[in-house]
Design a protein that fits this description.
- The chain is of the alpha/beta class.
- The chain has two domains: 6-134, Conserved hypothetical protein from pyrococcus furiosus pfu- 392566-001, ParB domain; 136-195, Helicase, Ruva Protein, domain 3 (Orthogonal Bundle).
- It contains eight helices and six strands, in the order ββααββαβαβαααα.
- It has helices at 26-38, 42-51, 70-78, 97-106, 136-146, 158-167, 172-177, 179-190; strands at residues 6-13, 23-24, 54-58, 64-66, 83-91, 133-134.
- The strands form two sheets. It has a four-stranded mixed beta sheet. The protein has a two-stranded parallel sheet with strand order 2-6.
- Strand 3 (54-58) and strand 4 (64-66) form a beta hairpin.
- Helix 1 crosses helix 3 and helix 5 packs across helix 6.
Length: 208
């Protein structure tokens, strides 16, 4: 079955992984790098890698397209890790190259939006995790979820949907220079009825 998770025990080089999104929240990447450094021993680090396999879709030419954990992959790359274990969640090796991204889009396995929240052509997707750009609003959305602003949800790229919502309500400059105040504004926006359509919304109950 295409969606059965099949761990590949052979390590895959991080630099061979192909992203399916254009941005990450660098604030989150830094946090993951910090947690990685807290694992001092090789055994602990190996255990962590075994517990956090990168989910991928196999595409034409057997390339591995990352569909989740981009932040972790970027953090490990920045920490000098060369190889990771991956979990195949879909096999599209039989799909023609010119049809591949259309299939990925249909299955919601790609999110080709830039740091301004604007949709771009699939050819503009970065070719390695090292080329992922920073979107401060993705960091804000991730922190907001951890603070209870919204619930974790299985909707693909749900935190990017929240990032785009916040982009329209909080000034980018504020996110960059005063993250705490940006969080306060973000939390108020997240609890409002304006956000009711978003995945994981957990605003106040409606009045009777």
């Amino acid at each position: 079955m295409a969606n059965t998770r099949e761990p590949i025990l052979k390590p895959v080089t991080i630099m061979s992984l192909r992203p399916t999104q254009m941005t990450v929240g660098m604030r989150e990447v830094k946090e993951k790098r910090k947690r990685w450094r807290e694992h001092k021993s090789a055994r602990k680090r190996a255990e962590m890698l075994g517990q956090h396999m990168i989910p991928v879709v196999l595409g034409p030419d057997e390339l591995h397209y990352v569909v989740d954990h981009h932040h972790l992959a970027r953090a490990l790359h920045d920490e000098g890790v060369k190889d990771v274990l991956v979990t195949v969640i879909g096999d599209l090796t039989m799909v023609d190259r010119d049809a591949f991204w259309g299939v990925m889009d249909n299955k919601r396995w790609v999110y080709p939006y830039d740091a301004k929240g604007e949709r771009r052509h699939f050819r503009d997707l970065p070719r390695s995790v090292a080329d992922l750009k920073d979107d401060p609003f993705r960091s804000l959305a991730g922190e907001l979820r951890r603070a209870g602003g919204f619930a974790k949800d299985t909707t693909p790229f749900s935190e990017f949907l929240w990032a785009d919502f916040l982009r329209r309500r909080v000034a980018r400059k504020l996110v960059e220079v005063d993250f705490g105040t940006a969080m306060e504004k973000g939390l108020a926006a997240a609890k409002s009825k304006d956000a009711i359509y978003l995945p994981g919304w957990c605003g106040p109950a409606a009045d009777d």
